[in-house]
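Exam prep: given the inputs below (a chain plus 6-O-phosphono-beta-D-glucopyranose), describe the expected output before reading on.
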Amino acid sequence: MLSALSYNPNMDVQQLTKAFAIQDKLSFRDVGNGFIIIAIDSELCTASMALQGAHVMTWQPKGEAPVLWLSPDAKLEKGKSIRGGIPICWPWFGDHATESTFTAHGFARTADWELVSTSELAGGEIEVVMRLLDTQTEQWKYDTPVAIKVTFGRSLHIELTTTNQSDVPIQLSEALHTYFHVQDVRKIEVQGLDSIEYLDKLDAYQRKSQQGVVCFEQEVDRIYINQSSDIIIQDKVLNRNIHISKQGSQSSIVWNPWLDKCKAMGDLGADDAFLNMVCVESGNAADNTVSLAAGETHCLSVTYSVT
Ligand code: BG6
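Solution:
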């Protein structure tokens, strides 16, 4: 079903259901205080997505272990970002380039997005389209609507499209800050980054060059730049590979907080929760910030799949 209606942030579960539900496959639930989640259960996968932040929270192809990691202590509250799943970092990644008091990773991940349409595709995938129209805030003075199209199937495909409707060029940095579920981060390899230059956030953003695969024996926080090819997360315990294939993305960010930060963060779960997750984020950051002239559109798209 393709709905002609657009989501109004004041719609409740009943109204959303009437306008956008897909029988037996896409439903809505309020997890408390008006925090509404889309729940998907199709022949191909189960998944969930919060309307706030257009935040994909879970995705599990049928017969597979969960691919995304969602913290057991994730806070589902208005104005708070959700720990896990796929937060959208937009219109800047990390700290703002000049204003240290501005929200880290931008404001999109905690904003109210509008639901535009839900539909079932010929192959059984469920497609959800959302958009953020009113982007002018105290921290971002530009009219730059952004839309997300998420296709939930045996693979997960996401397109994040930004249009610069203002009359000046803008500098955009962004990322799909994807948290992956792994059985033991000490027993995974991230492949596809060999010889790629990265900025090491844990060493004053020094520039280094990756040698071989990325392994995890301590905290890792790196922005790999000028990197557009596929990445594979090889999980030797679950005996599976997670593939990340992307377009319109020149950077990948690899992050695991390890024990001390995990304890300090407060919403990551038990002290050893960091062992079950790794972030491999696809975006455009640091040297790869996108210059978007007035009237131009930019699309970041990523496909996740498992073998
Ligand atoms: C990563 C950054 O992308 O996000 C890390 O490289 C940061 O430095 C992490 O700690 C989590 O950020 P936040 O704002 O969601 O706690």
